[in-house]
Amino acid sequence: MTKGFKNHIMKIINIKNIMSSLTINIKPKTSSNKKFLVEMDFDKLEKLATSLGFFSVDFLKSVDKAEKDYKEGKTKKIKSLKELKAK
């Protein structure tokens, strides 16, 4: 994994503004660089999720709706996000 890729991830998350100390280990999972492994402390992950709004009422409602749609068969399997962009 390149240093530039790690920097890009850190810019997206902008960890410095979310919490004072969060250690994330990012390691390539295979030699193909198409997969990577992210490791972090569970408690700090919860704090990060809260900061990003993952426990907000609106987000939780959207998760409930997605689960309901999935159970009712209102989903479509895709192999790539490009398939969604085509529509």
**Rounded to an integer, what's the Rg over CA atoms?**
17 Å
Through-space gap between termini: 32 Å
- Beta content comes to 5-15%
DSSP helix fraction = 40-55%
Report the strand count: 2
- Class derived from helix and strand content: mainly alpha
Low-pLDDT windows of residues? none
- Average pLDDT figure: 77
Number of helices: 5
For the record, the count of structural domains works out to 1
List the helices and strands and how they pair.
Elements (H helix, E strand, L loop, with lengths): L2 H11 L1 H4 L6 E4 L7 E4 L2 H10 L5 H15 L10 H4 L2
Antiparallel strand pairs: 1-2
Describe the structure.
The chain is mainly alpha-helical and 87 residues long. The chain has one domain. It has 5 helices and 2 strands. Strand 1 (25-28) and strand 2 (36-39) form a beta hairpin. The longest helix has 15 residues, at 57-71. The protein is flat.
Brief rundown of the structure:
The protein has one domain (about 5-85). It is about 50% helix and about 10% strand. The protein has helices spanning about 5-15, 15-20, 40-50, 55-70, 80-85; strands spanning about 25-30, 35-40.
Which key phrases capture this entry?
single chain; 87 residues; mainly alpha; 5 helices; 2 strands; 51% helix; 9% strand
